[in-house]
Design goal:
The chain has 233 residues and is mostly helical. The protein has a domain of 103 residues: Helix Hairpins. Helix content is 80%, strand content 0%. The protein has seven helices and no strands. Helix 3 packs antiparallel against helix 4 and helix 6 runs antiparallel to helix 7. The chain starts with a helix and ends with a helix. 2% of the residues are buried. It is found in: Cytoplasm, Cytosol; Late endosome membrane. Pfam families: Snf7. Keywords: Coiled coil, Cytoplasm, Endosome, Membrane, Protein transport, Transport. Belongs to the SNF7 family.
Length: 233
């Protein structure tokens, strides 16, 4: 009985039989052994085919009977070689399918482990508590935003006063200051000696100087009051 027949008729180890069938690793190892055996048989047949072809050429028409016998053997070897090629293709397909099945099994097993780990992680998690926690976080974020907005808002002290009334009062104060400045202006006394040339011009010049000083003072006071009003608003 050939190795292939023993393999398919239960040529596995006793340990494999006791477990109810070979493991994927054992089956893959057997398939690789079979592929190696058939590959060696291919090499042998290819060598015999070349040898029989050489014999047929050697005898040729000199010994036609021997040449024909060599060609017949060559045909039988070629037929066996073709059968082995088909068998190798079948075994290669089966090995690849088994490798893919084994890979899928390992992938599913690892995915199962991952699912169990996720389940264990989520055991102590309560969805209701998570919803309450997220709601508390949202509420606290809203409170923090309101506090930030309140701190960054511009202070509005003094907005309860009427700005028109303040400006009217400011104009009255400026007018009082102007009147006071005009009262402080003293006209020069009439000189006892002879007046210098152009007396009217000198007196007018002095009055103009006093008026300019009072106007300048009023402008400065007005600038100060505007700055005060701008700060208050």
């Amino acid at each position: 009985m050939s190795k292939i027949s023993r393999f398919f008729k239960g040529g596995g180890s006793t340990a494999s039989k006791g477990r109810g069938g070979p493991s994927p690793q054992e089956a893959l190892a057997r398939l690789r052994e079979t592929e190696e055996m058939l590959s060696k048989k291919q090499e042998y047949l290819e060598t015999r085919i070349q040898r029989e072809l050489a014999v047929a050429r050697q005898h040729g028409t000199k010994n036609r009977r021997a040449a024909l016998q060599a060609l017949k053997r060559k045909k039988r070897y070629e037929k066996q070689l073709s059968q082995i090629d088909g068998t190798l293709s079948t075994i290669e397909f089966q090995r690849e399918a088994l490798e893919n099945s084994h890979t899928n099994t390992e992938v599913l097993k690892n995915m199962g482990y991952a699912a169990q780990a996720m389940k264990k992680v989520h055991e102590n998690m309560d969805l209701n508590k998570i919803d309450d926690l997220m709601q508390d976080i949202t509420e606290q974020q809203d409170v923090a935003q309101e506090i930030s907005d309140a701190i960054s808002s511009r202070a509005t002290f003094g907005d309860e006063f009427d700005e028109d009334e303040l400006m009217a009062e400011l104009e009255e104060l400026e007018q009082e200051e102007l009147n006071k400045g005009m009262r402080d202006v003293r006209l020069p006394s009439v000189p006892s000696t002879s007046l210098p040339s152009h007396p009217v011009t000198s007196l007018l010049h002095s009055c103009i100087i006093h008026v300019q000083l009072a106007t300048q003072r009023r402008a400065e006071d007005e600038d100060e009051m505007k700055k005060l009003a701008a700060w208050a608003s």
